[in-house]
TrEMBL record:
Extent of Polar residues compositional bias: 49-69
Keyword line: ATP-binding, Helicase, Hydrolase, Nucleotide-binding
Organism: Apteryx mantelli (North Island brown kiwi)
Biased composition (Acidic residues): 383-416
Residue ranges of every copy of the Helicase ATP-binding domain listed in the record: 103-270
Biased composition (Basic and acidic residues): 14-33
GO function term, MF aspect, one: helicase activity
Superkingdom, taxonomy of origin: Eukaryota
Annotated ranges, domain Helicase C-terminal: 300-551
Record carries keyword ATP-binding: yes
Protein name per its UniProtKB record: Activating signal cointegrator 1 complex subunit 3
Parent-protein residues present: 153 to 977 of 1080
Span list, region Disordered: 1-69, 381-418
Length: 825
């Protein structure tokens, strides 16, 4: 093998650096990021390659500078025993043609960028090239990071299969889940996992190669990793333990990595993989449907299926609910024959399964479920009437009103297909169970046409074989964060030109294809060119805490590929200081209940409402509100043995429960190991809290979420009807409401603290707990002004009582809340 015959062998022994050395390294990193070192040197040699892709592609450069001597050339070639059909399939992948240039670039440079169309084989093949070239050993592994969990899991499975190696050798690690062993040599992980590893071992000494995959997605952790690795690579070089860094990306905007002078001391070479992309004809709609893009997708798929020759259809929608709803409509329109069970899915049971299900329901009805009543963690029998129903209103009569022309004069096809073919409809989104996701990689049952309805997970992370038609709604669901108000909301917006082009590209992987864009070309021209990196769009508090935990004091000087706005960093740091979070060493961000977790809780609504009331407890426990409900759910689940059945019956997400359990295990162990000397011990069995404990919990939450306090609208606000039942927060002019799903929705306590505000039809607070007003001056002094009333008091001021006002212009500048007097030393 041409690239694996290097004569230099690298030191086999790993150095185990002492604590002092680690400190030194951290200092060096800190210095490096402070002084903005590493201004890029000009490459001495550059080789340009042309790209076949119509998108802007960076020039490919191969450079060698004095500082980048060949340093890590393994001496051995490790044979891989692949199955013949696997070998045949991989030889067709465009990246195989580039193996030599990729390996030469890696041998000769510490940092290499590989850029290639989705599906060209980057993720599955580059780790195999490195393995064969001897880049792994008993002391060093290849680590590959993915921004999405689904990619980490499915790619490790795929690579293990291709290489015919055990999952003990090709493994994955995502948060709280993985199959990594001592034998692991190729490790797929989420970017967050590698970041955590850097906190423990700054030099990442167990890796010989780190591959940052899907770098174009510009997830926050990926960006931080690239910044950190730009410093770790030279440090490893200095120690004589070179680390190779490979950044892999779709053909999108890699200049942020290569031309960022603060990142790498020498411009890294960019290897462009020329993918065999077949032409894709783009069909724009003449008009842009304003709201019902999902209905428009349905109609377009129907037309394609009726009129166009065989070939898989891939539909891009924005979220899980839309995906399921379209799947249902399509399955109704093009049903499978009765005896055809190959396409079964979560909602599509075969006759046999339905029969079994009915039988089991009868059995269920016949027996009385045991009532578990462990103090406050009660479990009540499942109410058979509260099964999760499809709330779908089926307004589509398949085919009756369809215009068989593919609309908008956008079709030149005249071949007609057999419209009686069943459509094999599969959903695809990040949270779909891995075994259901795997279905899209398998050929559809004979005599059917594959139709995958996906979110943007199918844009670059996963490549579905056999797609000829893409239907692109042009939209994407994004989390928006208002830096001023601190409100996050999910909004469906137009996607970027780059991702629309990625979506279209999915149609031309195996033969010429067609992409139907459900919007006009004029609208496309108005799309932003690329989506902004995540780091510039989200709250930066947890980013700052992560960086501080890595001993990076001046976050503002960190070599981010795209730095977040300096004002946002400064404001976040101020907030963290006000909350007291930065005084404590190694504080981590707040554990938030994610939007997705809340959305799982949505199912089995009626039963959940019942359970909510039970879990909310009695007396003072109720004041802990939604947090008590969650605590009750976790406790009840724990007592029931945390089984999938319990979760299913009680509207809880099993995986989330497992995660909570593991996280709690970690925290209890940590706390018990620190506190045992003081005679403190946390019982891992998790008893329900006492009223006093629930009160402490409320105080802890208040102390941690000082900027998330809200007060019920006062008389002067109530003059305006829109303030009825509303709350006033410190940072918003608009009324906010307790979310209807909250246990405190009807109780409306005077003061509350909330976990987050989401914007739907109104601004809603979620994760709400009641707060006693007298706690505020005691627990949140930085937010209060203790002194005489202001000279120009706002209308709510009551001079007769002479009570102290809670006022601090920088935070509560719009609200002056009258609070009970407190004694202050
Ligand atoms: O990373 P990149 O997008 O360049 O390509 P890849 O993910 O390595 O995929 C290479 C090929 O492997 C594609 O044709 C995929 O369809 C195929 N593949 C597969 O058949 N099954 C998987 N689980 C993963 C990939
Ligand atoms: Mg990939």
């Amino acid at each position: 093998r041409r690239h694996s015959s290097g004569s230099e062998s690298e030191p086999e022994e790993e150095s185990h650096s002492s604590e002092e050395e680690k400190e030194e390294q951290k200092e060096e990193i800190e210095k490096a990021s402070d002084s903005g070192l590493n201004a890029a040197e000009k490459p001495e040699e550059s080789i340009k390659k042309t790209a076949t892709n119509q998108q802007a592609v960076p020039s490919a450069t191969v450079c060698q500078t004095a500082s980048n001597k060949p340093s890590c050339k393994p001496a051995v070639f490790i044979p891989v025993d692949r199955a013949p059909e696997i070998q045949e399939a991989r030889l067709k992948l465009p990246i195989l043609a580039e193996e030599q240039s990729i390996m030469e670039a890696i041998n000769e440079n510490p940092v290499v960028v590989i850029c290639g169309e989705t599906g060209s084989g980057k993720t599955t093949q580059v780790p195999q090239f490195l393995y064969e070239a001897g880049y792994t050993s008993s002391t060093g592994a290849i680590g590959i990071t993915e921004p999405r969990r689904v990619a980490a899991v499915s790619m490790s499975q795929r690579v293990a299969k291709e290489m015919n190696l055990s999952r003990r050798v090709v493994s994955y690690q995502i948060r709280y889940e993985g199959n990594v062993t001592d034998e692991t040599q190729i490790k797929f992980m989420t970017d967050g996992v590698l970041l955590k590893e850097i906190q423990k071992d700054f030099l990442l000494s167990k890796y010989k190669v780190v591959i940052i995959d899907e770098a174009h997605e510009r997830s926050m952790y990926t960006d931080i990793l690239i910044g950190l690795l730009s410093r770790i690579v030279p440090l490893r070089e200095k120690k004589g333990l070179p680390l190779k860094l490979i950044i892999m990306s779709a053909t999108l905007r890699v200049e942020d990595f290569t031309e960022n002078k603060r990142l790498f001391s020498a411009v890294p070479p960019v290897i462009q993989v020329d993918a065999r992309q077949f032409p894709v004809t783009i069909h724009f709609n003449k008009k842009t449907p304003l709201d019902d893009y999902s209905g428009e997708c349905f109609r377009k798929v129907c037309k394609i299926h009726r009129m166009l020759p065989s070939g898989g259809i891939l539909v891009f929608l924005t979220g899980q609910a839309e995906v399921h709803s379209l799947c249902r409509r399509l399955r109704k329109a093009f049903p499978f024959q009765k005896n055809n069970t190959a396409g079964d899915d979560d909602k599509e049971e075969s006759v046999e399964e339905i029969r079994k299900f009915k039988k089991s329901r009868k059995r269920k009805k016949a027996m009385t479920l045991p009532k578990i009543d462990l103090d406050n963690y009660s479990v009540i029998p499942v109410d058979e009437g509260d099964e999760d129903r499809d709330a779908e209103t089926d307004d589509d009569v398949a085919g009756s009103d369809l215009d068989l022309d593919l609309g908008d004069a956008d079709s030149e096809e005249d071949e007609k297909s057999d419209s009686s073919l069943p459509l094999y409809v599969l959903p695809l989104y990040s949270l779909l169970a891995p075994e259901k996701q795997a279905k899209v990689f398998r050929p559809p049952p004979p005599g059917t046409r594959l139709c995958v309805v996906a979110t943007n997970v199918a844009e670059t992370s996963l490549t579905i074989p056999g797609i000829k038609y893409v239907v692109d709604c042009g939209k994407v669901k994004k989390r928006f964060y208002d830096k001023i108000t601190g409100v996050s909301s999910f909004r469906v917006t137009w996607t970027s030109q780059a991702s629309a082009n990625q979506r279209a590209g999915r149609a031309g992987r195996t033969e010429p294809g067609h992409c139907y864009r459900l919007y006009s070309s004029a609208v496309f021209m108005d799309f932003e060119q690329f989506s902004a990196p995540e780091i510039t769009k989200r709250p930066v508090e947890d980013l700052i805490l992560q960086m501080k935990a890595l001993n990076i004091e001046k976050v503002i000087n960190f070599p981010f590929p795209t730095p977040p706005p300096a004002e946002a960093l400064a404001a976040a740091e101020e907030l963290l200081i006000a909350l007291g979070a930065l005084k404590e060493p190694l504080m981590t961000g707040r554990p938030a209940v994610s939007e997705e977790e809340t959305a799982k809780l949505k199912g089995k609504k009626a039963r959940l409402l019942q359970m909510q009331r039970i879990w909310a407890g009695q007396g003072l426990l109720q004041k802990l509100g939604d947090l008590m409900v969650m605590l009750g759910a976790v406790g009840a689940c724990e007592y029931a043995g945390c089984t999938p059945k319990f979760c299913e019956e009680n509207g809880l997400r099993y995986k989330a429960m497992l995660e909570i359990r593991r996280l709690r295990g970690q925290l209890t162990t940590a706390v018990n190991s620190v506190c045992s000397d003081a005679g403190l011990y946390i019982d891992p069995k998790m008893k329900p809290p006492t009223e006093a404990q629930a009160t402490y919990l409320r105080q802890i939450v208040l102390a941690g979420l000082g900027d998330h306090v809200a007060r019920r609208a006062q008389a002067e606000e109530l003059l305006d009807d829109k303030w009825k039942n509303a709350y006033k927060t410190a940072l918003l002019d608009e009324p906010v409401f307790i979310h209807p799903s909250s246990i405190l929705f009807k109780q409306l306590p005077e003061f509350v603290v909330y976990q987050e505000i989401v914007e739907t039809t109104k601004l809603y607070m979620k994760g709400v707990s009641a707060v006693e007003p007298e706690w505020i001056p005691v627990l949140l002094p930085p937010y209060c002004h203790f002194g005489k009333p202001l000279e120009n008091p706002p209308p709510s001021y009551c001079p007769e009582t002479g009570r102290i006002r809670c006022h601090r212009p920088s935070v509560f500048y719009r609200v002056s809340w009258q609070l009970p007097a407190v004694e202050v030393d």
